[in-house]
Amino acid sequence: MSAADYDIVRYAPRYKEQIAALPTTLWSTDPALNLSYFEWKYEQNPYVDEPLFYLALRGGRVVAMRGAYGAVWEAGPDRATVSVPCFADLLIEPEHRNRGLVTRIMEEALSHFEELGLEYAFSPSANWVTALASKAMGWREMGPLRAMRLAQPPPFLARLRKSAPTGQLARIRERVARIPGSRRTYRTVRGLAARARRFRPLAASRVRDGESDTAFSAFDSRVNRRRGEGGVSASREARPEAMAALVKEGGGDGRIRHVRDPAYFAWRFRNPLRRYRFLLSEDQSLNGYLVLGSSVQVSARQASILDWEGADSRARAGLLRAAIEWGDFQSLTIWSESLPAETRTLLEAEGFHLIEYGDDLRVDRPRILVRSVGKRDPRDWKLGDRPLLERASWDVRMAYSDAY
Amino acid sequence: MSTKDRLLAFIRKADVQIEGEVSTDLSLLKSGIFDSIALFRLVEWIQDEIGAPVDLSEVELPDDWDTVDDIVRFIDSRRAGRIGT
After folding, report:
1. CA-angle at A54, arms to A52 and A58, nearest 5°
2. Full DSSP string of A107-126
């Protein structure tokens, strides 16, 4: 089989059922859940009229796919808005890999983008394989992006730490570290475990079992007991109008960021493969919000701060403290690349530390890939007046990535 | 065995779809012949040849590594750079 044996086509509704059945390792094992994910991401997206989705067919059967969801960005002193869709969801059935399908699908997609008058495409959720394949096709990486994490030990280790005599754990750690190869073995096992968690197919039962065993179970029970404490409350639903109004009041500094209007907030956090909680700080009106997200397949208390705004530092600090105290998360992550120094200091004071990704190509790390639809010199890639490949041009948030 | 011969042998063994003989000016990356895992194996192979990791942000993959000739030129220049340092 060569690339010529495949038909590359744009999305049509007749392919929808096949698309839902394909990504069992990418989305979930449940076609019904995959269908609602596709509909949310590509059909209900407020910034496109029709799904930007591209397929490779072999004998009429879908064997590969790539999608791009609509996104509108603002940049520059006058906050000019520009439509730049984001590529996601690249999947090729194993027996059809390394036959040039990625290139052919992308050529079709970029040809469509050109017809639509689009200048750029982003890719904010590429794993290491997709990132490498994308770079081979002329994509550039804006980054690497830094992220911070607050990590708390699992309960058994916390108990051990409490009960062990002072210094005993440190002595055990020192002895283990002296064993040749122990650090490398630890890093390898940790990497494999992380990868296994990431690629574990999502059992449909985990979603259907309700919300009793989720990253937010501790959070929800604490919220119920402490509702309204310190002017911060929590909700399972976004407040699109109020959140958009707060973003608008805050203005912008001209850096590239996603437009966060009511339509965005009403759509973004309805992803059926994720759960979200919204911390809201209110006085007379909303003066801050913090969005927590977690995968529906994660039962451990692992979450991310996807978006975080506050009228002042007090409101932001109150929201962060509530997220940490109520969530009691084993792991709480945030993209810290664009945060002001004051906010990074606040995070450090709460125990967050920079994540070390190392230089292994196979590590999935935060990144935004960028490419021009036409053949333009990368040095001229700009949005507003901001160079797209410079980190300082961006105000990045985890919410921009469909991986969260 | 020269770098070019070793690379041609690596490509012949790789799980990629190439019809006929592998020519040294055949597009490997822009054509998409090497994508996903096969591309990663190629990166590993190049790093092994050079004897050092390659910072991919400094490489124009579609231009610097598209053909056998390109890759051999890249490896030779990196080796020369390492010898010179």
Report:
1. 160
2. HHHHHHHHHTT--EEEESS-
3-state DSSP call for residue B47?
helix
Contacts of A97 in chain B (CB under 8 A): 35-38
Residue located via tokens 């041609």: B8
Q: Which residues pair with B56 in a beta bridge?
A: none
At A43-77, the pLDDT tens digits run 999 999 999 999 999 999 999 999 999 999 999 99
Cβ burial of B57 (10 Å; 0-12, 13-18, 19+) is: exposed
- A308: closest CA among A287, A285, A284? A287
ipTM over 0.90: no
Q: What is the pTM of this model?
A: 0.84
Is A104 within 8 Å of A56 (Cβ atoms)?
A: yes
Residue A120, token pair as written in the block: 């750029």
Q: What is the Cα–Cα distance from A321 to A232, expressed in whole angstroms?
A: 10
Substitution target from A6, A26, A98, A130 for chain B, most B beta carbons within 10 A: A98
pLDDT at A365: 87
- Cβ of A97 and B34 within 8 Å? no
CB atoms within 10 A of CB A260: 23
Are the beta carbons of A98 and B56 separated by less than 8 Å? no
**Residues of chain B positioned with their CB less than 8 A from the CB of A2:** 17, 19
Count the alpha carbons within 13 Å of A199 in the hemisphere toward its beta carbon.
8
Cα-to-chain-centroid distance, residue A147: 12
Nearest CA in chain B to A92: B36
Smallest CA-to-CA distance from A105 within A83, A88, A118, A127 is with: A88
